[in-house]
Prior knowledge:
The protein is α+β, with helices and mostly antiparallel strands. The protein folds into two domains: 34-203, Ribonuclease H-like superfamily/Ribonuclease H (Nucleotidyltransferase, domain 5, 2-Layer Sandwich), CATH 3.30.420.10; 213-260, no CATH class. The chain has eight helices and nine strands. The strands form two sheets. It has a five-stranded mixed β-sheet, with helices on both faces. It has a four-stranded antiparallel β-sheet with strand order 5-6-8-9. The protein is globular, with a radius of gyration of 23 Å.
Amino acid sequence: xxxxxxxxxxxxxxxxxxxxxxxxxxxxxxxxxxxxxxxxxxxxxxxxxxxxxxxxxxxxxxxxxxxxxxxxxxxxxxxxxxxxxxxxxxxxxxxxxxxxxxxxxxxxxxxxxxxxxxxxxxxxxxxxxxxxxxxxxxxxxxxxxxxxxxxxxxxxxxxxxxxxxxxxxxxxxxxxxxxxxxxxxxxxxxxxxxxxxxxxxxxxxxxxxxxxxxxxxxxxxxxxxxxxxxxxxxxxxxxxxxxxxxxxxxxxxxxxxxxxxxxxxxxxxxxxxx
Length: 274
């Protein structure tokens, strides 16, 4: 048999195998109280009447297919933690496990062994709420396909045409109410209302802490503010003083044993000496 004959056959079979349909999708195999989180982009009408590009944070529950959304100005760690806090308050609990991609607001960088070095604010927020933070492999959005689809669904149904936002806090509260009303539809596989399935899931959520993590951070910044003799009233100042606190924290660590915090799939957090 000639070489060209074999080459032609292999090329033909590759093309046939590439178009052969395979029924490999696995539905409804998710566990209760597991969620996925992702950011998305959205156009809004600002106070000056011009279109602006903002961001949305979506948290979706894979077992019940319930989804909740918040609008943010940026994809910063402050916006991430505050939006999650609002969703937790609205649903009355915290999922056991939340899957993130390697967003810069949560992950500083990925180590050579695959562990993630987390931002300090996100790490403290996660430990405060006691959920297990896990992360997708790099460049693998299909690993959290539920929330990827939910971002597009909620954006098309509630943020088109671009809404005019006068008061972001009020707008986000109304958005959570709309997301709750959206649960009054049939699940795509189970044949029951999503609201009924999610009601069962809510009973198993982790109870919320007695004090919100956002309020704890605000109290710490207030004490820092009194020492500095200035006030904090805007997001810019909040991020500025948060940066100061992190800088001073790094300076104070010079006199102690240096360490690095990692998060992996087996252990939520591990502290390794450098």
